[in-house]
Amino acid sequence: MDVLEQSQRIAHEENIRDKEDLFLLKTAALYHDSGFLHAYTGHEEAGCKIVRKELPHFGISTKQLDAICGMIMATKIPQSPKNKLEEIICDADLDYLGRPDFFKIGNTLFLEMKQRGMVNSEREWNQIQVKFLKAHHYFTPANIKSRELLKLKHLAMVEQML
Predict the structure, then answer these.
(1) 141 φ/ψ sector (left φ>0, alpha ψ -120 to 50, else beta)
(2) What is the SS3 assignment for the chain?
(3) How many domains does the chain have?
(4) Residue 32: which of 19, 14, 18, 45 has the closest Cα?
(5) What CA–CA distance (Å, rounded) separates 21 from 4?
(6) What's the CA gap between 131 and 133, in Å, rounded?
(7) What's the pLDDT tens digit per position in 80-131?
(8) Which of these three, 68, 93, 118, is where a domain ends?
């Protein structure tokens, strides 16, 4: 739901007004992590399978499905958006990196990854965080303006923890 909310905020700030574009963006935001129902690694591909199976029952065209899946696939790390809507969903997906709830959300991700045996310690997690934060960049002017500075502060704080 956070990605939906942030997608709508960013779209508004980026002056996206076309009803079709907004519908596709909202749909992609709602389905972007649905693949976790079937897979952890490759959940974007699994999400697209769900979208392509279920959404035609609601009158979604092949062209619309392609756009929705394009947005879902753009969120795969490393992110690779090819158009403005894909940039928006990518920024919405990692919006928390530059928000005050960064550490709260980061801790839930740490616990998730620890449970899956993907990290063993907070130190290891913080090393991953530093590498990720250094590599990450926002795509939209809206998020560069509103999130980049705090993201860089978070990076400095995590580096200090090491």
Answers:
(1) alpha
(2) CHHHHHHHHHHHHCCCCCHHHHHHHHHHHHHCCHHHHCCCCCHHHHHHHHHHHHHHHHCCCHHHHHHHHHHHHHCCCCCCCCCHHHHHHHHHHCHHHHCCCHHHHHHHHHHHHHHCCCCCCHHHHHHHHHHHHHHCCCCCHHHHHHHHHHHHHHHHHHHHHC
(3) 2
(4) 45
(5) 14
(6) 6
(7) 999 999 999 999 999 999 999 999 999 999 999 999 999 999 999 999 999 9
(8) 93
Q: Same domain for 99 and 153?
A: yes
Give the tens place of pLDDT for each residue, 50-93: 999 999 999 999 999 999 999 999 999 999 999 999 999 999 99
What's the pTM value of the predicted model, to 2 decimals?
A: 0.95
Contact between 105 and 114 under an 8 Å Cβ cutoff? The reply is: no
State the Cα–Cα distance between residues 157 and 35, nearest whole angstrom: 32
| CA distances in angstroms from 40 to 33, 57, 119, listed in the order given | 10, 26, 15
Residue range(s) defining the domain that contains residue 108: 95-162
